[in-house]
């Protein structure tokens, strides 16, 4: 299947480095990030998993649970985690799925035949509390993920899910946001008491509404 934005993320049961999980039960009411790796003991992925572990508190602040996937079995995951903890000065506490039968990879369209007939590509999927897919990013094997961007997108998704705003190019937490076109200027003045900067009738900025 081809997974697209807005689709309901498929549930699954899987063996992981932390035991058997049901994906929906693991997520509960949290946001979720599922990211795939071609194989264990690969250098770029080692740095990525280490960075994910180091950002544990940042993901917790955003009510987000992470889990990784590789097509290798659990025993290899456990050995790899030892290397990650040693080389990246971290403690991997999130589960890594052992997807040796490619079941989850197939559900989430992580295998791209033109890249590899058997190994997963390096994709990252953000899933909302409603279990809908909010973001899909796929990276080439040679380029490590930008976790500053992952956190930035999470901030944007969580903000725009609760307010009638969108975030402009290069937006970062704390900066002005854009009022969506569906809200009239008259209503926007009432809805956003911090003020409105009207550049064009369709381009209206307001301070980030969920900050004091």
How would you sum up this structure in a few lines?
The protein is of the alpha+beta class and 212 residues long. Helices cover 31% and strands 24% of the residues.
Description of the molecule:
The chain has 212 residues and is α+β, with helices and mostly antiparallel strands. It has two domains: 13-144, Glutaredoxin (3-Layer(aba) Sandwich), CATH 3.40.30; 163-206, Antioxidant, Horf6, Chain A, domain 2, CATH 3.30.1020.10. It has helices spanning 23-27, 43-54, 56-61, 74-88, 103-107, 147-162, 185-191; strands at 13-16, 19-22, 31-37, 64-70, 96-98, 122-127, 133-139, 165-166, 177-179, 197-200, 203-206. A five-stranded mixed beta sheet has the order 5-4-3-6-7. The chain has a four-stranded antiparallel beta sheet with strand order 8-9-11-10, with helices on one face. The chain is elongated and about 60 Å long. The relative contact order is 0.15.
